[in-house]
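Hello forum,

I keep getting stuck at the same step: I have a sequence, I want structure tokens, and every attempt I make locally crashes halfway through. Rather than fight my setup again tonight, could one of you with a working pipeline run this one for me? It's a single chain of 486 residues.
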Amino acid sequence: MDGTTKIGISSQTLVSSAVPAARLPQYIAALIATIGGFSIGTTLGWTSPIQSMLNQYDFNISSDQFSWIGAFMALGAMAGSAGTGAMANMFGRKKTIIILTIPMTLAWLLIIWGPNVLALYIGRFITGFSGGGFTVVVPLYTSELSETEIRGTLGTYFQLQLTLGILLPYVLGSFVTIFSLTVVCAIVPVILAATMIFMPESPIYYLKKFRLDDARRSLQWFRGSHYDVEPELQEKKQNLDQMEAEKVPITQAFTTTPAKRGLVIGLGVMFFQQFSGINAVIFYASKIFKDAGSDLNENLSAIIVGVIMVFMTWVSSLVIDRAGRRPLLLISALIMAICSAVLGIYFYIKNISPETAKTIGLIPITSLSLFVIAFSLGFGPIPWMFMSEIFPPQIKGSACSIACLFNWLCVFFVTKYYNDLVSVFNTYCTFWIFAGISVAGTIFVWNLVPETKGKSMEEIQRELGAIPQMSVEEPNKNSDQKPTKL
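Reply #2:
Ran it on my machine without issues. Output:
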């Protein structure tokens, strides 16, 4: 013995260590897939500018009918989100995204040339159906192609694209007709389908379908041609095998501690996202600017709010994998609570002393801007990203559908009944209610929401209460042996 200890290192480990995974393909794929979020944004934002252009239709639309035009989109999204998880498991994530663009495009054409209000109702319901499907399958696809280190960043792209989609009708609506605006909205899903064709299917989907070679090629595309994907591929395959070994009926899977805690967290953040008051703030944006003595017109006020949302969501995508999910949610909820309370005080003062309200016009504008900034930094993007992180693999498809369905149910109630809430409780009380909900959201995050930054799916599940299991024996890395069916 010469005293030198030899340590054997496989060539696979050396290659993996020497050549890091490429990230540009992951960014490209995430940006293309989240055009689905952009498409949802155009659907949500479309109603804002057309409210002042209803005279361009050949038929009359009452205020109640207009509220249903907005609400039918949410009802369609509830239906679409309910069944998309099963569809994604059957046809694949990529094909499901492409399939959903077909009804959305046809629905926009119905809205363009529809002869009556009923046609608008049907068109809005179908665009909502596809949009609800996108909220399930796009975050799932993005999560499954991402490395752990950038999973949070890529997860925020969905909300970023959604805010960009909302901004587009705000901008175009100020100088084009309803016809031209709707044509542009109809083009977006066509672009999504045309670009998504060139993207690989999720490697996880291939592994679930016993297609190891296809999974290898898919992962190679996402990680770059010079990266050795075998260690990561075998780890993913081993995790799927272990899940199959622990598989239980779906009803039983929902009774496990991680599943119950995941559902509570997932549904909770969705609730606080929609009932934080973001829709009320956006609805009153132009009114607040006007009451504060601003000369900005209604469209420009909406554009300013939209730009703030886009910019801060982009900032969130830059810091989320450094700052973490939980701190951003806490900061977001706390600032929104304060801003909603201040806006309530402003509207109360305005109600009893309009002249006094004019002298403090800068306060509501500042509160509104800070509210939008806080929402876009935390509760805007993070709930969508959480869906792909906190649910156990056994129930991920079904749980994501439930969370999305619940989100759109909240959207429906906020869209349809917000004006009724204002008429019953007055504007200032409504904002105080939103402030109270955001305070409850802060408490909810502090007590129940775990930090998922930089953690593997297995680590997150253990933190939610999963019992560690003995790992299954790793199969031969060069074998194309099929994993146990999931």
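The chain has two domains: 21-199, 248-466. If your local run keeps crashing, start a new thread with the error log.
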